[in-house]
Structure formats: C-alpha cells, structure tokens
Amino acid sequence: MGTTKNIIYISFIALFVYSCATTKERKLDTASAETTSDTLRIANDELEYEIIIIEPGFNTWLVTQRPRGYYNQNFLEVRNRQYVVEYNQRVMQPQIFDPNLYIQQINYEHQTDYGYEVNYLLYNYFLFFQQRYNQRFLVTRG
C-alpha cells in the first residue's frame, strides 16, 4: 500500500508543482492576491494517501465553492473518475491538448477509498482547473 501512496503523491506533486511553475507560460490574468502560491496538503496516514495542490488562487477560489458535506462521497468519486479519465486522455494527446496544461497522468484508482477530503479537493481542483484555464471536461450528469 505504501507504493500506491508514493505513486499518488508523486503524480499529484509533479502535476501541481509543474502547473504552478508554468503559470507564466499560460499567460494568466491573475489578481495580485492570486500571485502568491497556494499550497494545500491533505494527508491521511491511516489510509496512506495524500494530495498536495499547489496552484495560485486555489485556496481563495475554494472558499467560494459549495462547502464540505454538500456532495456525498459517492458523487465526488463518480465525478473524479470521469474527470481523471478525460484528463489522462488529454495527457496522452499532446498534439491536440496543450502539454503545458496536461502534464502528467493522475493515478486515481476507482476501487480505492481515498476518503471524503481527498475526493472533495480533487473534484474542486478539476472545477478550478476548467474555470482558470478555460477547459471543458465532458462528464455525465447524474
């Protein structure tokens, strides 16, 4: 189980560190409050999973979204599976999708219980990512 933790940790840290480092390349129009790097770390040592989000403006944006508990964990897991599949497909198609946005695949195993907090943050990061970088993921409603 430690290997899974390391893979998830490395995937998220690489993705979000790189995305933070390339914000200038993305030519973002950011307010001064968003130019400082937000770092959000969620860890559950009992489950051995961790998510680290490093993205300017994410924390500020997150407080304006639906609060924890609004969605149940099943809803978040279903959406995250859909978002991860689409995100990973875009990573595999750098000739179509900007490789500066879609850097590395996300290792999200649908049979693994990551817990509510990890799913909540990952779901909201996908919403933030779509809004910030004007991307649209196709997910089924339900």
Distance between the termini: 32 Å
**Helix coverage percent:** 40-55%
Give the SSE string: HEEHHH
Q: Domains counted in the coordinates: how many? A: 1
Q: Which strand order do you get reading across the main beta sheet?
A: 1-2
Main beta sheet: 2 strands, antiparallel
Care to give the gist of this entry?
This protein is mainly alpha-helical and about 140 residues long.
What would you say this structure looks like, in words?
With about 140 residues, the protein is mainly α. It has one domain. It has four helices and two strands; from the N terminus they run αββααα. A two-stranded antiparallel ribbon has the order 1-2. The longest helix has 20 residues, at about 1-20. The radius of gyration is 15 Å and the shape is globular.
Describe the structure using short key phrases.
mainly alpha, 4 helices, 142 residues
What order do the helices and strands come in, and which of them pair?
Blueprint: H1 2-21, E1 39-44, E2 49-54, H2 58-62, H3 73-91, H4 116-132
